[in-house]
Amino acid sequence: MMIKKLFLLLFISVLSFVKAQDDVPDLLSIPGPIEYDGSEYFLSWSKPISKTLYRQQYLPRDEQIEDFTQLLDFSYFTKEIEIELAVRQKVEGIQQRSKSDKFAKVNVIESPDGTEYIVDYFISESPEKGDSFLEYNVYRFKSLTNGTDKSFLILSHAKRMYGDLKSSAKSMARQRDHLLTTMIEFKIPEITATAKN
């Protein structure tokens, strides 16, 4: 009897987790799951951060935010943002971090037409509890225009490797070109902010 109750509780908690994921509101009207680099990413979190900023995060099906290995993030502004300023802030943040994180390195690429920038960088984390990890991020900054409406998107992909930082850094450096190209070639879906604050 006790075992039956336990299984029933487990089953209910699994169902509520699935339901919780299904209940995440899609604030940007992006049809999912998103196909990215041969994997499917599912909406796992969304929030209107302010009246003009909406954020959504996507994870592969069996991953959780606490110990993810890959994550897609859409930060969508319903107003014009100065692209060079946004890029500079991101770069300066990583340069600042490099004073205390020896793995922190940052690069910037500008598209030939000047409408997009890519910022890619490495960071590491050695928490007191849990595994150390090295993370490689590719941020794509893009100004968008729809008629007279101007908006701004920061699309990012993070990849983490847990364990020994030195070997993770070598492995991730070998993957950099592929991960960079994947972001540059990714076709950004049409985005419409649907939530109102």
Produce the secondary structure layout:
Layout: H1 2-22, E1 34-36, E2 39-48, E3 53-60, E4 70-77, H2 83-97, E5 105-110, E6 116-125, E7 133-146, E8 149-162, H3 165-185
Antiparallel strand pairs: 1-2, 2-3, 3-4, 4-8, 5-6, 6-7, 7-8
In short:
The chain has 197 residues and is an alpha+beta fold.
Name the structural class.
Answer: alpha+beta
**What distance lies between the first and last C-alpha atoms, to the nearest angstrom?**
49 Å
Largest sheet: 8 strands, antiparallel
Count every helix, treating DSSP H or I runs of 4 or more residues as helices.
3
CATH third-tier fold name: Protein Transport Mog1p, Chain A
The Rg value, from CA coordinates, equals: 19 Å
Shape: globular
User: What's the domain count?
Assistant: 1
Order of helices and strands: HEEEEHEEEEH
What is the CATH architecture descriptor? 3-Layer(aba) Sandwich
Provide the residue-averaged pLDDT. 87
Task: Give the amount of beta strand, in percent.
Answer: 35-45%
β-strand number:
8
Low-pLDDT windows of residues:
1-21
Tell me what the structure shows.
The protein is an alpha+beta fold and 197 residues long. The chain has one domain (25-185): Protein Transport Mog1p, Chain A (3-Layer(aba) Sandwich), CATH 3.40.1000. Helix content is 29%, strand content 37%. The chain is built from 3 helices and 8 strands, in the order αββββαββββα. An 8-stranded antiparallel sheet has the order 1-2-3-4-8-7-6-5, with helices on both faces. A hairpin with a 2-residue loop joins β7 and β8. The chain starts with a helix and ends in a 12-residue tail after the last helix. Residues 1-20 form the signal peptide. Keywords: Signal.
